[in-house]
From TrEMBL:
Record protein name field: Transposase
UniProt keyword terms in alphabetical order: Coiled coil
The family this protein is said to belong to: Belongs to the transposase 8 family.
GO molecular function: DNA binding; transposase activity
Length: 103
């Protein structure tokens, strides 16, 4: 039997991290009170601290607002590049078709 993996919202993660980082509570104490694994919360805290130092997350959604915004902008840039490439190819096809019509 497989167990379903629990998904947590970004807001929930940030609140849990805040209890550890800003309120100076122990990871184990916060994890137990929120009903999550100690290692899970510890991973979130380490990831958050790395992001605060400017190290971009390698996987998943960013926790800090700055890194989150960077991820959104990177997605938008990828989308725009893809659209630009499609338009280039379409215009090249149309140009070659119009040349063939006049021959």
């Amino acid at each position: 039997m497989t167990t379903k993996r629990q998904k947590y919202t970004r807001e929930f993660k940030l609140e849990a991290i805040s209890l550890v980082v800003e309120h100076k509570r122990k990871v184990a104490e916060v994890a137990q009170s929120l009903g999550i694994g100690t290692s899970t919360l510890d991973n979130w805290v380490r990831k958050y601290k790395k992001e605060k130092q400017g190290i971009a997350p390698t996987e998943g959604l960013a926790l800090t607002d700055d890194q989150h915004r960077i991820q959104e902008l990177e997605r938008e840039v990828r989308q725009l590049k893809m659209e630009k490439d499609i338009l280039k190819k379409a215009s090249a096809l149309l140009a070659s078709d119009s040349l063939n019509v006049y021959r």
